Amino acid sequence: QQQVKQSPQSLIVQKGGISIINCAYENTAFDYFPWYQQFPGKGPALLIAIRPDVSEKKEGRFTISFNKSAKQFSLHIMDSQPGDSATYFCAASIGGSARQLTFGSGTQLTVLP
Amino acid sequence: KAGVTQTPRYLIKTRGQQVTLSCSPISGHRSVSWYQQTPGQGLQFLFEYFSETQRNKGNFPGRFSGRQFSNSRSEMNVSTLELGDSALYLCASSSLSGGTEAFFGQGTRLTVV
After folding, report:
1. Dihedral angle, C-alpha A72, A1, A42, A109, nearest 10 °
2. Which tens digits make up the pLDDT trace of B46-96?
3. What is the DSSP track for B44-61?
4. Dihedrals phi, psi of B42, to nearest 5 degrees
5. Whether A44 contacts A90, CB under 8 Å
6. Which pLDDT band holds residue B40 (cuts at 50, 70, 90)?
7. From the DSSP assignment, how many helices (H) and strands (E) are in chain B?
8. Which listed site, A21, A103, A108, B94, has its alpha carbon 20 to 30 Å from B42?
9. Which chain A residues are Cβ-neighbours of B100 within 8 angstroms?
């Protein structure tokens, strides 16, 4: 059972544009929602994370928007750069921690120069 | 500070064999989690160890096992390898069981032929 659904599967944006990736979850016990960035040949690296007591969190060009009632959260990448080209994964876990993460299926982002 | 180290980086095994993968967490981190990454199933949680004890286990057959040593280094073992076990195996460490950030290694690419 896929508990975290991620879309789109792939995304192409122009340099300077906004990249938006969406995730929806089913398990209401989830209380920690991180986003990971993965480059080819590397392990995932934490980008930004949010807990359900806030609706938005911003770190630099990266923003998470969280809608608890809709059980959805999204990643916005402002002023997208070619160096942002990577695979992005949303994830969720229980207990407010990074243990036993349930990942979305991933989004392959390509930022054109 | 050294990151998470996984060895070997690449491995080719024959169906029916067994394999042992190693993970050295970040110094001071006591929680180690293992994940399997495949194109079809994405990133899936295998198990988590904290202070030499398995704390959580994902939905994988008993052929997949692990252990953690007193220095927090962890190994995972897969017995009676199947073609479908070909994957990137990722290890992540956290400072405490329930740490809010998981740091991933670069993974071990296992190919079963």
Report:
1. -40
2. 999 999 999 989 999 999 999 999 999 999 999 999 999 999 999 999 887
3. EEEEEEETTEEEEE-S--
4. 75, -150
5. no
6. confident
7. 0, 11
8. B94
9. 32, 49, 96-98
CA distance B25 to B105: 8
Question: Per residue in A13-61, pLDDT tens?
Answer: 999 999 999 999 999 999 999 999 999 989 999 999 999 899 999 999 9
Write the residue in B43, B48, B55 that is nearest to A89 by C-beta.
B43
Contacts of A103 (CB under 8 A, 6+ apart): A4, A36, A89, A90, A91, B35, B42, B43, B44
Q: Look up tokens 């202070």; give the residue.
A: B51
Q: Which residues are CB-neighbours of A60 under 8 A, at least 6 positions away?
A: none
Residue B80 amino acid letter: T
pLDDT-derived band at B3, boundaries 50, 70, 90: very high
Pairwise CA distance, residues A50 & A32, whole Å: 6
Strand partners, B36: B44, B89
User: For residues B87 and B111, is the Cβ–Cβ distance under 8 A?
Assistant: no
Residue to mutate among B21, B36, B100, B108, with most A CBs inside 10 A, is B100
Which amino acid would we find at residue B58?
A: G
